[in-house]
TrEMBL record:
InterPro entries: FAD-bd_FR_type, Flavoprot_Pyr_Nucl_cyt_Rdtase, FNR_bac, FNR_nucleotide-bd, FNR_type-1, OxRdtase_FAD/NAD-bd, Riboflavin_synthase-like_b-brl. Belongs to the ferredoxin--NADP reductase type 1 family. Pfam families: NAD_binding_1. This is ferredoxin--NADP(+) reductase. The keyword Flavoprotein applies. It catalyses: 2 reduced [2Fe-2S]-[ferredoxin] + NADP(+) + H(+) = 2 oxidized [2Fe-2S]-[ferredoxin] + NADPH. It is an enzyme of class 1 (oxidoreductase). PROSITE patterns: FAD_FR. It comes from Vibrio casei. Keywords: FAD, Flavoprotein, NADP, Nucleotide-binding, Oxidoreductase. Residues 6-115 form the FAD-binding FR-type domain. One of its GO terms (molecular function) is nucleotide binding.
Length: 262
């Protein structure tokens, strides 16, 4: 095996969940000594790397889905991955199973965290497509820190029903939040009972999201995190700006921030 590149440590896949043929989660354990404690902040991403046929390390960014934690000297990471048929790394990740090695980045990063949400925000809207739901599940696992909000709204837009992942986890979080958390699934390519149809920007502008969540949108209290498909992020930013919301900057509080996955 080629030398482990700087900024990575060898981890082991301890669990794999297959949600659909092309969509899966990997739980990876890595030596805690390679990370600070806690090993990351909810909402952040790290990197995964696997060697390709030529022996080169292929590395990409992946968000953590789990609550940051260390157990028995192991830093725990869970990743939700969609396999891109012609992708360089995801078909290799798709071959991993329990007991396999995978490199994990030792420098998790990213600013889509609870700390970055302005103090004035009352309702945190988490708008995601596809695997972009991952960091929001991690954020929602920080129940104590999320108590500052009046409402948390998790919006997950996918193509088909089978891609509505982490249903059991979301149901458990809904119970724990006792009404504070709202879950709004959107399925775009087939009718699904209990889910909205169409796309996030259109559902924002027509009031569909606010109605489904039973939470009004207000310039004073709403803050939006956008994550996933860059076209969704682009179109949602446009929609929010038309609706009078401003991009959030550290030097000037606004209403929305985002993370593009490609
Ligand atoms: C900050 C950050 C966090 C990320 N977190 C995740 C994550 O948690 N889960 C995850 O699956 N991916 C995530 N990604 C994307 C990931 O880094 C890879 O780009 C992706 O897995 C494709 O890798 P690949 O080598 O197989 O494809 P490549 O050979 O690099 O091909 C890339 C192409 O695949 C498509 N694509 C890339 N990512 C996705 C995606 N997530 N969903 C749909 N189409 C995509 C785009 O068309 C892109 O141009 C994240 C990216 C960033 C920048
Ligand atoms: N290996 C396999 O068998 C397999 C199977 C399926 C997918 N894939 C791979 O996975 C990738 C798709 O992943 P994904 O389903 O997470 O991706 P996606 O294309 O990002 O779709 C997720 C959701 O985002 C919506 N969306 C797309 N563009 C938008 C925009 N401009 N504004 C608002 N919403 C928008 C989609 O709506 P629309 O439906 O209206 O576009 C869909 O509801 C594909 O590129 C493919 O490579 C692989």
């Amino acid at each position: 095996m080629k030398e482990i590149p700087l900024g990575f440590v060898s981890g082991t896949v301890v669990n794999r969940t297959d949600w659909a043929a092309h969509l899966f989660s990997l739980e990876v354990h890595a030596p805690a000594s390679a990370f600070p404690s806690p090993p990351f902040i909810a909402g952040q991403f790290s990197k995964l790397a696997v060697q390709d046929e030529e022996g080169e390390w292929v590395r990409r960014a992946y968000s953590m889905v789990n609550k940051p934690c260390i157990e028995s000297d192991k830093a725990i990471f869970e990743f939700l991955v969609i396999e891109i048929p012609d992708g360089k790394l995801t078909p290799l990740l798709g071959q991993l199973s329990q007991g396999d090695d995978v490199l994990v980045g030792t420098l998790p990063s990213g600013f889509m965290t609870l700390e970055e949400v302005p103090e004035t925000a009352k309702d945190l809207w988490m708008l995601s497509t596809g695997t972009g739901i991952g960091p929001f599940i991690s954020i929602l696992e920080e129940i104590e820190q999320c108590k500052r909000f009046e409402h948390l709204i998790l919006v997950h837009a996918v193509r088909t029903k089978e891609e509505l992942v982490y249903k059991d986890k979301i149901m458990s979080l809904l119970k724990q939040y006792q009404g504070k958390l709202r879950y709004v699934p959107i399925v775009s390519r087939e009718p699904v009972s209990g889910a909205l149809s169409g796309r996030i920007p259109q559902q924002l502008q027509t009031g569909g999201l606010a109605t489904a969540a039973h939470v009004p949108l207000t310039e004073q209290g709403s803050f939006f995190y956008l994550c996933g498909n860059p076209n969704m992020v682009h179109d949602t930013r446009d929609a929010l700006q038309i609706m009078g919301y401003k991009k959030h900057l550290r030097r000037e509080a606004g209403h929305f921030s985002f993370e593009n996955y490609w």
